[in-house]
Each structure stands twice: as structure tokens, then as C-alpha cells.
Specification:
elongated; flagellum; Flagellar_basal_body_rod_CS; two-stranded antiparallel sheet; Flagellar basal body rod protein FlgB; cilium; 2 strands; single chain; 7% strand
């Protein structure tokens, strides 16, 4: 179950990174509304239920728009990207941990 939950987290974080990149690419597009990715609450509930498998959802941001109708905020997107990157790296290390331990054990034999 742990590996299923970590895989779900990695998938959700990868989608978040792609979504942030798309938001930034559209920062000057009139009437473009940023998208946000959420999965953490659903993942926590799924893990609590003993499952761990969820699909991330992308929704439209409700942040205020500027004069051209666009609501992408570069500062917000940059911070969200850093957060997603760090979380992704942490989850990837957690997935790789058992394999690294096995490789280390096999080398010392």
C-alpha cells in the first residue's frame, strides 16, 4: 500500500509541475485562468482507508484576475513549483529507498 500511495503522490506532483508550467506559459494570455492540482486530502483519506490509490484533479483557480482577465501570479506559481519539486524529490527518495538498501546489501555480501 505504501508504494501505491507514493506512486499516487508522484503522479499528482508531476501533474502539478506540468500544470504550473502551463500556467506560467500563459501568463500573458488574456482571459486565461490558472489551474490548480489537488490530491493531498484525497490521498490522506485513501491511505487512512488502507488503499492509497488516487487520481489528482485539476481545477480552475479562483484567484482574482488582472485587467486582461488573466489570474496567473508568477510569484505564486514559482513558490508552488519549488514546493512541488521538493515534495517530488522527497517522495522519489522514499520510493527508491528500499531498492537502494537492497543494492547496498548485495554489494557488501
Amino acid at each position: 500500500m505504501t508504494s501505491v500511495a507514493l506512486t499516487s503522490a508522484l503522479d499528482g506532483l508531476a501533474l502539478r509541475q506540468r500544470t504550473i508550467a502551463n500556467n506560467i506559459a500563459n501568463i500573458n494570455t488574456p482571459n486565461y485562468h490558472a489551474k490548480v492540482v489537488s490530491f493531498e486530502n484525497a490521498l490522506a483519506q485513501s491511505v487512512q482507508a488502507g488503499e492509497g490509490n488516487v487520481t489528482a484533479a485539476t481545477t480552475r483557480s479562483t484567484a482574482a484576475t488582472n485587467l486582461n482577465g488573466n489570474n496567473v501570479n508568477l510569484d505564486t506559481e514559482t513558490l508552488a513549483n519549488i514546493d512541488a519539486l521538493l515534495r517530488y524529490q522527497f517522495a522519489a527518495k522514499a520510493v527508491d529507498g528500499p531498492a537502494t538498501a537492497m543494492r547496498t546489501a548485495l554489494r557488501t555480501s
